[in-house]
Amino acid sequence: MSELHSSIDLPYSIDKLWSVLPDLNKYDEWMTIHTGFKGDVPAIEDIKVGTKFSEIVTLMGMANTVEWTVQEFTRPTRCCRPSGVPSSWAAPAWRGSRPSSSPASKRSTPTTPA
Any long-range contacts for 80-86 (C-beta under 8 Å, 24+ apart)? Predict the structure, then answer.
């Protein structure tokens, strides 16, 4: 199974990132493996614990459908959709914010650099 781990410091506030990262209708603007969705796509204001959606992702040239269920949703820092697939995090960073993806099995609380 493929895993994707990434982290980057961005010169944006957490509030600015939060307006984009969990917004499913904006995934194609930043999520490189995102191909589309099957069925209805919930609006950002409707996402909460228990929200379900089906995403089509393409890895190594192969399209796959991933069934997501939001298990944690704490504005503006955490949107967790675990099931052996990435979870999204955002934390304050030295100059802006640090969004990252990591497998749900390796959950950790993001830290602010000293």
Answer: 80/104, 80/107, 82/107, 84/1, 86/4
In a domain, 29, yes or no: yes
Sheet holding 34-38, edge to edge: 34-38, 52-59, 62-69
pLDDT digits (tens), the chain, 114 positions: 566 666 677 788 888 888 888 888 888 888 888 999 999 999 988 988 898 889 998 988 999 998 888 888 887 777 776 554 444 545 555 455 555 554 443 433 333 333
44: closest CA among 85, 96, 79? 79
Rg for the chain, CA atoms, rounded: 14
pTM (two decimals): 0.61
Q: Which domain holds residue 18?
A: 6-106
Give the Cα separation of 85 and 21 in Å (integer): 16
Q: Is residue 1 part of a domain?
A: no
